[in-house]
Specification:
single chain; alpha/beta; Rossmann fold; 3-stranded antiparallel β-sheet; binds fructose -6-phosphate
Length: 246
């Protein structure tokens, strides 16, 4: 069962979700516990990251007890590549916060042993105690992370091929479609579903058709986001555009 929250706009949504994350971090750190966050890249979470940075800067919210795991990374792009997700996260979040570097995890797009690296990534999530709160965006193909259709419910962190629609959508960041990698490392559907709480963000009319499918279609590999219907604590944060009935 997916809960929905309709926000006046993506900035107000960001404020509300950032406040929930802050409360979680503060409550857990009071009892000596770390908070494990699963993080996404792309344009959707940018206002949320800006708000987390503001809470740190203006309200003294500390991220020292936070452990992070990013969903995915392009194969072949290293940390200095401007379009790598490692670079994205540094620029848009980590360099503005006090998360200890040793507590930040992002799949390594330059690994030469993807199966081993992905198994190690899964083990690190388990070792951290599992993900407390997972932030997700939603691709127009129905992907969560980079789990393109078809993606079964039992998929784990692994190397995948990117759908042509996803490469097209992301080519705006690269300037040219030919520069968009065709493969990525991504947490699997099962990895994502093990998070104790999932907050999916989708804004704008361009996402309304896929939001509708994710919520209404019978869960199947054809639209990986439909698996979220089986999660006990998943909320879709929408605006008037993305919640429009198509
Ligand atoms: C990014 C990710 C993807 C994006 C999705 C939406 O780490 O895992 O699933 O969340 O492609 O991208 P935007 O937000 O750019 O529309």
């Amino acid at each position: 069962m997916i809960a929905t929250r309709l926000h006046p706009d993506k900035h107000i949504a960001a404020q509300s979700i950032a406040r929930e994350i802050a409360t979680l971090i503060q409550l857990r750190s009071k009892s000596g516990k770390s908070t494990v966050l699963g993080l996404a890249t792309g344009s959707t979470p940018l206002p949320l990251y800006a708000e987390l940075i503001r809470l740190h800067r203006d309200e003294g919210l500390s991220f020292r007890t936070v452990v992070t795991f990013n969903l995915d990374e392009y194969v072949g792009l290293g940390p200095t590549h401007p379009q790598s997700y490692r670079h994205f996260m540094e620029e848009h979040l980590f360099r503005h916060l006090d998360v200890p570097v040793s507590q930040i995890h992002i799949p390594d797009g330059l690994t030469n042993d993807a199966p081993h690296h992905c198994a190690t990534y899964e083990a690190a999530i388990r070792h951290a105690g599992g993900i407390d709160l997972q932030i997700l965006g939603l691709g127009r193909t129905g992907h969560i992370g980079f789990n393109e259709p078809p993606a079964a419910a039992d998929t784990r962190t692994r190397q995948v091929h990117l759908d042509e629609m996803t490469r097209q959508d992301n080519s705006v960041f690269f300037g040219d479609l030919s520069l968009v990698p065709s493969a990525a490392l991504t947490m699997g559907v099962a990895t994502i579903m093990e998070a104790r709480r999932i907050e999916l963000l989708a804004f704008g009319e361009g996402k309304s058709a896929i939001v509708h499918r994710a919520m209404q279609e019978t869960p199947s590999a054809k639209c990986p986001a439909t698996w979220l219907q089986r999660h006990p604590h998943c909320t879709f944060h929408l605006d008037s555009g993305s919640s429009k009935q198509t």
